[in-house]
Amino acid sequence: MQSLRALLQFTTILPLGKPADYECFAKRSWLYPAAGYVTGGIAALPGLIAWYLGFENSAVIAAISLALAVFISGANHFDGLLDFGDGLMAHGSREKRIRAMTDRTTGAGALALGIMVVLISYSALSSMTVLQIAFAVFIAEIFGKLAMAFLSALGKPFHDGIQKFIYDRSKKRFCLYAALLTLPLFLLPGKICVGAGFLSALAAAAVLLLLARKLFGGVNGDVTGAGNELTRMAVLLVAAVILTSA
């Protein structure tokens, strides 16, 4: 329980009492998808409530669901996405890219990537029915956390920080444990979407690992946080294609 509480205190703004020992989670970073069940369940509520009440405005529910997913995390992972955007779009040497990613300013790269991810995610969600929005945002949150588990276990850090703290306490087998936590999703209707979402999470994590190693020489907390946002976007986009083509 201490590990789960530490995980949720790190990934959400839920009031969970006295801060837990973060090392309890760091030694069990494979638990990341468990947080996705919580954040995804909360973000799915607007769609479920709208479906129950007969409210069919997908555009409104898409905006609320996406906003809730970002809000419940305290925009922590979104902040990582913005920092990653600055590093990704910076010009020059590896050192300049790292400096752009880790400084306290928000540049054009951050704004550009943030806007792109939000627009694509919102467009994907708004193309669905309200019930499909609830389903899609639920699985997208879980697979976003799966990508974070992969990045935490496999992403060799390029400097001291939160990524190094978790990486040093993780094992490669944690990737398997994290993947097993997503298996209950295959009991839901829409197994094609779930399978496609799982593959999207694997692909997003792999691309980010390769990109981070090439551009920065490794992974940091910003890259891992960006993994959640980019994977959510990818899963929502794939789900939209599958669900609206049926």
TrEMBL record:
The chain crosses the membrane at residues 30-53, 59-84, 105-125, 131-154, 174-190. The keyword Kinase does not apply. Keywords: Cell membrane, Cobalamin biosynthesis, Magnesium, Membrane, Transferase, Transmembrane, Transmembrane helix. One of its GO terms (biological process) is cobalamin biosynthetic process. The keyword Nucleotidyltransferase does not apply. It is a multi-pass membrane protein. Its cofactor is Mg(2+). GO terms for cellular component: plasma membrane. Its main location: membrane. One of its GO terms (molecular function) is cobalamin 5'-phosphate synthase activity. Pathway: Cofactor biosynthesis; adenosylcobalamin biosynthesis; adenosylcobalamin from cob(II)yrinate a,c-diamide: step 7/7. Its EC number is 2.7.8.26. InterPro entries: CobS (IPR003805). It is found in: Cell membrane. It catalyses: alpha-ribazole + adenosylcob(III)inamide-GDP = adenosylcob(III)alamin + GMP + H(+); alpha-ribazole 5'-phosphate + adenosylcob(III)inamide-GDP = adenosylcob(III)alamin 5'-phosphate + GMP + H(+). Joins adenosylcobinamide-GDP and alpha-ribazole to generate adenosylcobalamin (Ado-cobalamin). Also synthesizes adenosylcobalamin 5'-phosphate from adenosylcobinamide-GDP and alpha-ribazole 5'-phosphate. Belongs to the CobS family. This is Adenosylcobinamide-GDP ribazoletransferase. The gene is cobS.
